[in-house]
Design brief:
With about 130 residues, the chain is mainly β. The protein contains 1 helix and 11 strands, in the order E-E-E-E-E-E-E-E-E-H-E-E.
């Protein structure tokens, strides 16, 4: 089992940027990692994902070119750089870990049910 803790959220003006971090309680080399977000009254949605070795990354169309996911397996951490923020990016952002191979991840990364462990989330609020 692994515990995940997200940090780095906050209040930012439109066009601003943040760096979200996800710290794991143990090694994450065996996990594909993802970031999701959930706004009030909406379902949790996929934002970005990265396979175990970091070679492949995936993004929701709404954040492509603005968000960047990365991982540092030596530090048991995953990051999400969010830039060009818009008011519609306001949400609680969650980090998740899934026991998925590179092959299986490519078809399953958008589905929250594909992930086994979740953090408690960090709030990102973008003022217009």
């Amino acid at each position: 089992q692994v515990q995940l803790v997200e940090t780095g959220g906050g209040l930012v003006q439109a066009g601003g940027s943040l760096r979200l971090s996800c710290a794991a309680s143990r090694t994450v080399t065996t996990y594909a990692m993802g970031w999701f977000r959930q706004a009030p009254g909406k379902e949790r949605e996929f934002v970005a994902g990265i396979i175990r070795n970091g070679d492949n990354t995936y993004y929701a169309d709404s954040v492509k070119g603005r968000f960047t996911i990365s991982r540092d397996n030596a530090k048991n951490a995953v990051f999400l750089r969010v830039a060009g923020l818009k008011p519609e990016d306001t949400a609680v952002y969650y980090c998740a870990a899934g026991v998925l191979t590179e092959q299986s991840y490519s078809g399953r990364y958008r589905n929250p049910a594909s992930y086994d462990y979740w953090g408690q989330g960090t709030q990102v609020t973008v003022s217009g």
